[in-house]
Amino acid sequence: MDLGLGGKKAIICASSRGLGRGCAEALAEAGCAIVLNGRNEAVLAETRAAIESRFGVPVQTVAADVSTPQGQEALLAACPDPDILVNNNGGPPRRDYSELDRAALLEGAIQNFVTPVELIQAVVPRMKERGFGRIVNITSLSVKMPIEGLDLSSGARAGLTAFLAGVCRQLAPHGITVNNLLPGKMDTDRLKGGFERTAVQTGKPVDDIRAQQAAEIPARRFGNATEFGQTCAFLCSVHAGYITGQNILMDGGLYPAAF
What pTM was estimated for this model as a whole? Predict the structure, then answer.
């Protein structure tokens, strides 16, 4: 399917690896010029080379912490007028709520609530001028279903979801859509790190933990960055202009609900 994105410009935050990279690759395949972001210059360079070689589209890299004003300025200097913004950022590490002090709470809110709002504020004016814009926020299954130890991440991302529920209706008349992708258990480094922590805590082999958790998912497997990215690219396409304010679960059926 032609997504109608040839020549569009896309900023994808935290995109040197994992789900962000999956989104970058899918948008590059659709013909977008890509701005990659991450903190590790070597990993960014490898991802840039792979995308340029495979898809032949222009790729820029911005090595910066997107949750800082300086990082956002660098990202927007590389692409002042993106057609597409994919908000993504690592969540706070797993910690019991009782262990969170004020500094940790504020940092979590900045990473997963304040930062995407600030970037949306920055890119929307030019999107309005063009009458086209696509904003996709990578949040989490934990917005809908509690996950032990991720209370801070869940709260910040749920706050972002509620905040943008009204904003997206203001932007819809201008041809701008705002949607959220909620990954469940995806086969990423973060998930693997969770297996390793559980192995240390329980003494069970990592492979056994992985198999047990996969068996709990109706699809009987973990998701992957490629299928996640392709879903993101569709939400950014010309065909998805009538989809806005939606929370798209990608969890293999793990969340048990009819609606």
Answer: 0.95
